[in-house]
Design brief:
66% helix; mainly alpha
């Protein structure tokens, strides 16, 4: 075990050198902390300057303009007028009412796809 009296006598005999070591350690610690603070402030200042430079080079949205498109769209109608109702003639032309055979064929095709999926499941 460590003898308490030996430690106390060592500290009393070498008090001056221990005080110098403690003072140097505190001084080094203060210098290191000061350098870290200064480095952090310098980095923050550099980041602020970089951000202000980026904002200075940015084009405000109200001044932004685009060149005309060299391959413009031809004069075509992109949509048609919407009607409130279709006439009976248009309805007969565009809408087919499926009969029972067509519905059954559609149901059978769907059932086959479902069966194929279920068979592939482990």
């Amino acid at each position: 075990m460590i003898d308490r009296e030996a430690i106390v006598s060592y500290m009393e005999d070498h008090r001056d050198s221990l005080m110098r070591v403690a003072a140097v350690s505190v001084a080094v610690l203060v210098i290191v902390i000061g350098l870290l603070v200064r480095l952090g402030l310098a980095e923050a200042k550099a980041a602020r300057e970089a951000e202000s430079e980026r904002l200075a080079r940015a084009i405000p949205p109200d001044e932004l303009w685009f060149l005309p498109d060299p391959l413009g769209m031809p004069d075509i109608q992109l949509s048609r007028e919407q009607r409130e109702r279709w006439s009976a003639q248009e309805r007969d032309l565009w809408y087919d009412t499926p009969d029972a055979g067509e519905i059954g064929a559609l149901r059978e095709a769907g059932r086959r796809q479902i069966d194929d999926l279920l068979e592939s499941v482990p």
